[in-house]
Amino acid sequence: MHKADCIFCKIASKEIPSSMILEDSEHMAFLSHRPNTEGFTVVISKEHYGSYFAEVPSEVRARMLEFASKTAKLLDDTFEDVGRTGLMFEGFGVDHLHCKLFPMHGTKGDKWAQHASQQGAYFEQYQGFISSHDYGEPGRPEIDETWRKFQPQV
Which of 23, 110, 128, 152 is deepest in the core (most CB within 10 A)? Predict the structure, then answer.
């Protein structure tokens, strides 16, 4: 299905040009036109699905993840300082199934090495971006409070 007002549907049908780096019969990967790091890539389904990955059929997610994995390895191989590429499904910019790939520059090495963040922020609400940094001290009482929300009511 193609949605007339969807920018990703227009890119998938090639009505709008993109900086495509990989394609198969169901997916496209193209460089973001507003990257926050070199090689920031968007992977889309050619068929229109809503943007929340947890609500699309599992086989659609599985095929997209496989394609995104191939794209991530292409990014790793393209940039000599990239040891791995991060992946995120977020979907608040465009309501069309997509994931974002972030080449992690400066992570290439002969063996695994920790890369700890120096960020120091806790978010009460979604800020328009996702960060993977840690915050606070381990074992804070707030973590137990959150954990209890997942426990069955007795």
Answer: 23
- What φ, ψ does residue 68 adopt, rounded to 5°? -60, -35
* CA pair distance 115, 16, nearest whole angstrom: 38
Asked whether residue 78 is assigned to any structural domain, the reply reads: yes
What CATH number does residue 29 fall under?
Answer: 3.30.428.10
Nearest to 22 by CA among 90, 105, 89, 101: 101
Q: Tell me whether residue 58 is in a domain.
A: yes
pLDDT at 153 > cutoff 70: no
Q: Which two tokens stand for residue 7?
A: 């920018």
How many domains are there within the chain?
1
Closest CA to 18 of 56, 47, 44: 44
pLDDT digit string (tens) for 17-28? 999 999 999 999
154: Cβ contacts below 8 Å, ≥ 6 apart = none
Match 């400066």 to its residue by tokens.
106
Q: Has residue 138 got a pLDDT over 80?
A: no
145 within domain boundaries: no
The stretch 96-105 carries a mean pLDDT of 97
Domain membership of residue 88 as a residue range: 7-105
